[in-house]
Design a protein that fits this description.
alpha/beta; 10 helices; 26% helix
Length: 384
Amino acid sequence: MSPSKFFTAALFVCSLAACADDAPATSNSGATADTTATTEVPTATTAAPAPTTTAAPAEEWETVAAPADCLCSDGSEFSFFVRHGDATRVMFFLQGGGACFDANSCDPASGNYSTEVNGPGALGEGEGIFDFDNSQNPFADYSVVFVPYCTGDVNLGNTVHDYGISDSGANVVIHHNGYVNATTALATLVELFPDATEVVVAGESAGSIGTPLYAGLAQDLLPNARLTVLADGSGAYPDIPVINATIGTVWGTQNAVPDWPENADVTAETWSIPGLFVKAGTHAPAITFARHDYAFDETQVFFGNLAGIAADELVTLIDLNETQIEAAGVVLWSYISPGSEHTVLHKPEFYTETLNGVKLRDWVAALIAGEPVADVHCTTCTTG
């Protein structure tokens, strides 16, 4: 692979994680320096932290100030949010918001990724699955742990990386701390809701990528709970070993691999997005895995074209990933809609989207209730 094609492909892989309104990165890689620090990987038996919680009325969100080792990309403090509902049913939600992998894409001025904590209101509070007053919301009574995203590493990183000088002249040093942040929030979920019997690990865009990993960790911590994964908006993310390794090196993904027997043979080349489903599903086979994608997701199509992948093949990439995952023995339920939107969980369309006579809302409700579902896939997958 030529250098130009490599960086284009790498840009594609990272940017598939971006939200629909993220500005695409268009510059080439800047200077790269060595990784400078890591944080010890939390394990399944890690004790819950002692966060500082700001109380709020029951129907509102509480802000949890995370411990000092939880940071955003610029080294600023990290916090997350909790909504108290039914203590036996909990959603662990991973927010999306872009990604970066070199000096220019990680330059805070680039707009390629979220650099600060944004709470549930950033998704349009009161819409989609966050409309807790809607009687049709299958999560209306759930407790929720909402994990903001501000590290540019799709919640898989655990290092501080010095990328050198960007084209704008900025000295770019990034705390890729997503894994530490998210595992801390997960430990708090277990501390607050130790009797949870139903846990849904959901995410949109960049946040959806790590959902199988965190479901596996949640199953370790809550072995008697029924775990469900709901990943929205990252199904075309490919498994390309050279890119897995290159991006994994700068993000420090090998410092964030759970100590599972199934991971004994994991390398930077094999720690892939489809592989997360396979490893988590093999480790905890009782987990139910599901995802939602649009066949012509405008974010994924844009970066697919940038990487030389024809837009009309995007749905093929989505299907190929599912085939790869299921060939490894892990069942992945999918709802693949026509259209060019990017994610749906936080939008009003969550309640109205219907395909082949099946409402997405009803499909999700059955899924999280442990009822039988089937794949729902567009037969004529148009752009709209």
